[in-house]
Amino acid sequence: MSALNIKKGSTSHSAYELRDPNAEVIEAHTLAVIVENEPGVLARVIGLFSGRGYNIDSLTVAEVDHTGHRSRITVVTRGTPQVIDQIEAQLRRMVPVYAVHDLTAEGPSVQRELALVKVAGKGEARIEALRLAEIFRANVVDSTLESFVFEMTGTPEKIDAFADLMRPLGLREIARTGVAALARGI
Amino acid sequence: MTKQMSGARMVVQALKDQGVEVVFGYPGGAVLPIYDEIFQQNDIRHVLVRHEQGAVHMAEGYARSTGKVGVALVTSGPGATNAVTGLTDALLDSIPILVISGQVPTFMIGTDGFQEADTVGITRPCTKMNWLVKDTNRLAETIHQAFHVSRSGRPGPVLVDIPKDVQFALGDYTPMEKAKTDHYQPRMKGDEAAITRMVEMMETAERPLFYTGGGVINSGPGASALLREFVAATGFPVTSTLMGLGAYPASGKSWIGMLGMHGLYEANLAMHGCDLMINVGARFDDRITGRIKDFSPHSKKIHIDIDPSSINKVIRVDVGIVGDVGHVLEEALHLWKTRGARVNREGLAKWWKQIAEWQAVKCLTYKNSTKVIKPQYALQRLEALTKGMDRYITTEVGQHQMWAAQFLGFEDPNRWMTSGGLGTMGYGLPASIGVQIAHPDALVINVAGEASWLMNMQEMGTAMQFRAPVKQFILNNERLGMVRQWQELLHGERYSSSWSESLPDFVKLAEAFGCKGIRIDDPADLDEAIKEMLAYNGPVIFDCRVEKHENCFPMIPSGKPHNEMLLGDADTQGVIGAKGAVLV
Ligand SMILES: Cc1ncc(C[n+]2csc(CCOP(=O)(O)OP(=O)(O)O)c2C)c(N)n1
Ligand SMILES: [Mg+2]
Description:
Number of helices of chain B: 24
Radius of gyration of chain B: 24 Å
Bound molecules: thiamine diphosphate, magnesium ion
Number of helices of chain A: 4
Low-confidence stretches of chain A: 1-19
Number of strands of chain A: 9
Radius of gyration of chain A: 23 Å
Oligomer: heterodimer
Low-confidence stretches of chain B: 574-584
Shape of chain A: elongated
Largest sheet of chain B: 6 strands, parallel
Order of helices and strands of chain A: EHEEHEEHEEHEE
Largest interface: A-B, 34 and 43 residues
Strand order of the largest sheet of chain B: 3-2-4-5-7-6
Number of strands of chain B: 20
Distance between the termini of chain B: 69 Å
């Protein structure tokens, strides 16, 4: 007989508690991470997410200050409030990270994503696609007799909605940039 | 004016400027220019190891026992990959070390060149920060920054990867003072309002407890001194994690012993029962908390940590104070004194009475024997015979490590080097050499298990070559003891591969290395043998044949709360919750 009352020959043997004891509501947060634009820094930030099992819904990055060599990473992640706090703390302590802003927590923000959407079709479907694109304020940036490429910006939800509408009309391909976001006001 | 020099010379110059006295390393094609520079100077000593893992653990031992950054030098490819375990070990235990690795020349990177490995890629998750330096002009500054990052804030391992052409090329040397470090300046001072909350809570708590960790050691001897002063002034009990042993002296009046999975009964029950927990530089590791849901259910919790990500990571606390332990303790102590140095005397008296009852259980009691050496007895004798000596202890990983933590007393910080977070078998022998190199005249003992010890035993060659008289105190149970214990308790006594088969003859092995070997299996001979080991002026391999099936108690099985502790073999026979689990 063993300590945990496991009989000889038994297979119940996990010593670890496998359930997440702090399961709570999952929230999506948009974080702006200002980093030194050096090789490997993006990998380090992404490695934090994969290594610690955090989610990335969307990620964009570009140098935003050429003289100061600073890049802005916009990452949309989700987790319980405790996990979100932990993600921010983990990001903040990274050596090449200058600042972390939780745009979801810090007040209202604007979020935009750009998408290129290729739709192929003829006749009625083609006309309907064009009509819907107008409603969504998508621009035609390429066209052939049998296809369009639309360009649109908007919230991820708006792009999702547009893509859903295009699907039955001949959606072929979609390219999305991921979210860029800024806090509203000064 | 900046000085022009080769990249290789810059490495040596930067190390000198940083006050480095010794580098642990192993040469190879991609670091030959640096070795050439090392050859042509006498300020920095190079210790040639036998395996790069050894070099990194030596650097860790050196760092942990001195508070300085330890330095290791390895070649590209296999040299760098061999360093990964040590880097991860240092990351989990917050040990400041710098690994310098050679790399294939810049124009060959990405071609799968000979001994090319993506070293910065491989080591990114196991370093606090790492750099691949492609321009000699940036090399010196990067090394200075690496030292700064390694020792600032929560200390940790850093790596600088240097392609061979960068080592040969000439460039401008950036002196230490000119290196840009301002963007990484972790916060040292704690928030005033939070410190005030802490002091208020300390004034009224009925059952307060200091729970201290490796952060106190990392903060420096000043932090340990402040902790001692604070504890003495308040009369609060103090417990510590494995990593924090020595910050408060084992002989101190308020010491209630180590806590955690193999911690003392009184310490764990105090954690469970306290109403105010003051976490000073510890991180609520799972070996400490047991089942999170039931962890210290009735306490308000204060957490002082220099790393903001440690606060609320595992356990939600009532007051989080981000700052250096030394700074925060100093301010808290000052504030507490100016407010009248108040504590809840009545509550405290009752609390100590309760603790005394727990202490009376004498949880470390074991059944001694006149026929076989009990590992606990061996350590008690080692403790008795080395008391008062200028002593440093390292350990390997396993039962012996836990017994060492239980049965040896640490009076000062930086005297206890053990792999806590990663639990790296093979750490202790090289770490002991690193410690001995830093403290040539001190007594350095590695308390080892035979299985762990074999993992890096090649480093005995290093000990011999560099005259490091380290004592390898092997508690030889011919078992992967800790594994065997878990199999007994949790896997229905199916002892799958937990025997140490075909062990070498340790005395002959010692002779083969040219040092002294001692074998002993009779408890009656123990004292004489230990004295012989201590008297020998050189490395000793001490093969202490101990009881093979001894279990290490107390034990909180993983995922169990503190009050479901197993106290001894008798407990393991029945159902937990009956006699064995003494509820608070
Ligand atoms: C590198 C490594 N591999 C495996 C383990 C798992 N492990 C933990 S303790 C242990 C047994 C150690 O045996 P020994 O060194 O003889 O010490 P004892 O427990 O017998 O005192 C093992 C295999 C580990 N901690 N590190
Ligand atoms: Mg063993």
